[in-house]
Amino acid sequence: MLSIDRSRELTDVKVMWNVLCYGDSNTWGCKPITQFGVYERYDPDVRWPGVLQSTLGSEYKVIEEGLNGRTTVFDDPIMGSDRNGKSYLAPCLETHMPLDLVIIMLGTNDLKPRFPGTTFDIACGAGALLAMAMNPAGNWIGALPKTLLVAPPQIGELTALAGILEGAQERSLKLAGDMKRVAEMLDSPFLDAGLHIQSSQADGVHLEAEDHLVLGQAIAAKVQELLN
Fold first, then answer.
1. Is the dihedral of CA 136, 140, 145, 149 positive or negative?
2. Does the pLDDT of residue 203 top 90, yes or no?
3. Which of the residues 76, 124, 125, 190 could staple to 72 if both were Cys, CB 3.0 to 4.6 A apart?
4. Is the peptide bond before 98 cis (omega within 30 degrees of 0)?
């Protein structure tokens, strides 16, 4: 009779965890802006999703889905409806399925005065995205993904972006607390990026390279906790 060493067989099987990072310009890797309308991007290994990938290692596949100006659920009357995070999330989830974890870090752009609502409304917008990720539509492959809501760091003193984010600095002080409340309501894990990093002093919104490193490592620790 043929004898099969099951323990060796299981040891040799490689497990791949698929992690989607869904965010705005700080997930895209936009460098701090010193001249309005001039955008530069960090290299892939510098951006926090790239740091997340290198920290987690080859057993994980980190998918970077960042877009400048992306909101939670609002159509942008200036930048266009394609910045609405809710509109793109469903096809994005189906494009990358199966997924084990969906990380959502949005909300900064919703603080622009062109959008209505309170910081709790913004948090509820992020909650709507969490709900979509928890129960994705379509012909889903694999188990339903876990989620992680990341509150962006507070907005600092605005320079080149002051015109489009007027009043956002003070409002951003409440955003993380409201997002934590919504995450708890939906039983989703939560991470406050502002406890680990701060927005660049150069423009008050985007991250310096060292903050991408710290954030990527902090999220990596949370991902390992959730998936292991």
1. negative
2. yes
3. 125
4. yes
CATH of the domain at 156: 3.40.50.1110
Buried b (16+ CB within 10 A) or exposed e, 135-156: ebeeeeeeeebbbbbbbbbbbb
Check: CB of residue 43 under 8 Å from CB of residue 31. no
Instruction: Please choose, from the candidates 107, 81, 103, the residue with its C-alpha nearest in 3D space to the C-alpha of residue 92.
Output: 103
Model confidence pLDDT, tens digit, residues 91-127:
999 999 999 999 999 999 999 999 989 999 999 999 9
Q: Which domain holds residue 150?
A: 19-227
C-beta atoms surrounding 174 within 10 Å:
15
Q: List the structure tokens of 2.
A: 């043929």
Does residue 4 belong to any structural domain of this protein?
no
